[in-house]
Amino acid sequence: MADLDITIAGRAYRVACEDGQEDALAEAAGLIAREAEELRAQFGDRFAALSESRVLLMAGLMLADRHRVQSIELAAAAPAPESPAQPAFFEDPAQAARIAALETELEDALERAEAAERALAAAREAPPQEANAELAEAQARAAAAEARMAAFERDLAAAREAEAAARAAVDEATRRVRALVSEITEAA
Asked: Are the C-beta atoms of residues 63 and 32 closer than 8 Å to each other?
């Protein structure tokens, strides 16, 4: 373990980190220190009256909000992927895994449907008795594949709705955090 001395808002701290992580820690501390300096500029003479924990909390919240906005902007600027997009921000790993599994199952169902259609086309070219049996079997496989595809598409739509609800909840939480920061700023 390595120890690193950092300074945020004129206050010195000694922080431990894994060996080799000193530069990353110094960079992270620099980000928080810059946010604290913005607070100092906003509060002026009243900054000295703020407690250490309040300065660190507000700087952390401001940094987190900036990161959230940048992530949303990056996601909006990214080109649309060929396959349905996985949530890039505030992703629920279980939900993302479920969506990925549904997409894989949907692709498999599409491949089976295509195979059934090929078998159906081959059955149409076979002698009549043989063709009737193969045709019925191919039609049954195609119908089953279509039913599975419809179920997978419903599950995928439900997962996307859950993702949208989660994003809305995050936006509401962010709005509340901003209101809290505003209240703290006004109270100080």
From this structure: yes
Tens-digit pLDDT profile for residues 109-133: 667 777 777 776 776 676 666 667 7
The answer to whether residue 41 is domain-embedded is yes
The model's pLDDT over 28-67, given as tens digits with 9 standing for 90+, comes to 888 888 888 888 888 888 877 877 787 888 887 787 778 8
Rounded CA-CA distance 8/143 in Å is 66
Rounded CA separation 60/57 (Å): 5
Q: Is 5 strand, coil or helix?
A: strand
CA distance 187 to 150: 55
Q: Tell me, yes or no, whether 73 and 97 share the same domain.
A: no
d(CA 83, CA 88): 14
The SS3 assignment for 21 reads coil
Q: Is residue 88 part of a domain?
A: no
In this prediction the pTM is: 0.40
Question: What string of DSSP letters covers 73-127?
Answer: HHHHHSPPPSSPPPP-SS--HHHHHHHHHHHHHHHHHHHHHHHHHHHHHHHHHS-
